[in-house]
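ok so i was messing around last nite and threw this chain in just to see what happens. nothing serious, just curious
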Amino acid sequence: MLKDVTIYDLARELKLSPATISRGLKNSKHINKDTVKRILDKAEEMGYRHNNFASNLRKQKTNTIGVLVHELNSNFITSVLAGIEKVTTEAGYDLLIAHSSESFKKEKSNAKNLFHKRVDGLIASLSFDTDNLDHFKPFDDKGIPIVFFDRVEENAENTKVIIDNYKCGYQATKHLIEQGCKKIVLVTASLKRNVYAQRHRGYKDALYDNSISYDKKQVLIKDLSEQCGREAALEIMKMKPLPDGVFITNDFTAAVCMQTFKEKGIRVPEDIAIVGFNNDAISKIVEPRLTTIDYPGTDLGEIAARSLINHLKGLSSIKTTNTVVVRSELIIRQSSLKNRD
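result:
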């Protein structure tokens, strides 16, 4: 393996002092322009690479933001990452991205790893089974700021960027009721997580406000995978009488569930109306097109990243704003429209 070229190698070649080489590489105005050009040309010729790690270590910062997410195979997470990357790149920060694969154990390990990578700040979304935030304490102890998004601990004091999941759950369920649905199934994930607990509460309250009995047998707790979509559809088809509405808190799962219904001869929305969640690309291309909740991941990522960057630059403090609620809305398409008058 070739040895890295150092400023001492450049100094030896150009017969200049290491201090002059260092200043020249930074294009210092105190160095003659011709000399700067000689230094930069020789550095390029010899393959010199600036040691950002050593430089940043001296400054006690790495210009790196850690991002900890619960999965990567998600249009929503991809859009959040795009929003984060846009803001951090403009601010001159690099990203270190880790994902927990919905495992609390892996989340703890990743948090520890990002801490030892000396990230300047952290943006995080929790796994299904995370039940405490103790693994983030080293960040707090060192004064390293954390912004949580989407899946958060609502009672924690950290800054959070979320949508109003209760309102979304209520709106989705109310829409199905307005379409004449009286037996509505909820397909969702672990109620330990704020996003699913709040959507569940919204669903439950919408039923209550419209004099429809809540039945916990009509709440299917799944992992929101492709397999889950098929399993949910098969379970729903065994229910007597057949439900006439389904609210599924993930668009991809909803699309798989809808396809399974169609394969078994159940019409959507005539027999069963369906509402999804996230406004993923798939919601616009399935047939019928999927009614869903628009959850603007790019906006959420930008807001989370900007809050963190502004804090790091001393322009504002994440301590002053505990929770940021990002807009969301119900997008009505054909999959839920039983009433077409």
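not much to say yet. The chain has a mean pLDDT of 90.
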